[in-house]
Design a protein that fits this description.
Number of helices: 1
Structural class: alpha+beta
Largest sheet: 4 strands, mixed
Order of helices and strands: HEEEEEEEE
Oligomer: single chain
CATH topology of one domain: Immunoglobulin-like
CATH architecture of one domain: Sandwich
Length: 129
């Protein structure tokens, strides 16, 4: 089989032209969460800002009143959640989403509803009053 030199050069140029878009995917979407992680977000339902919150070794910072953090990966296992003098225990499971609600009365942890239909929007309402 004879390989045409021009075809090989054309293929190399096409691959090099497409490479930056592949390299840019991570900067566009951010790094993917580890496959074995749980995902946790924090809701600050207090009237004052939340300076910081720790879930194991994962630190959430500067959350405004009524603010919601993005989901962050947390390794499965047993974790203590610390907010000032309050604490709670979280045992996240792989691939499960959690919401930690911080209120003036304490901490509430909710396992979020699984989103199994990416072709449809999903709205979940929590009533912590």
């Amino acid at each position: 089989m004879r390989v045409n030199r021009r075809s090989v050069l054309t293929a190399i140029v096409a691959l090099l032209a497409a490479a930056p878009s592949v390299w840019g995917q991570e900067s566009l979407y951010g790094a993917a969460a580890p496959a074995d992680a749980a995902l946790v977000r924090v809701v600050n339902a207090q009237t004052e800002p939340l300076a910081e919150l720790w879930i194991g070794a994962t630190r959430f910072t500067a959350l405004a009143p009524d603010g919601v953090s993005p989901y962050r990966p947390v390794n499965p296992g047993i974790h203590q959640i610390f907010v000032g003098t309050r604490s709670a225990e979280l045992i996240p499971r792989r691939g499960v989403y959690y919401t930690v609600m911080v209120t003036r009365d304490g901490l509430s942890i909710v396992e979020d509803t699984a989103h199994t239909r990416p072709d449809r929007a999903q709205i979940v309402l929590y009533n912590f009053s």
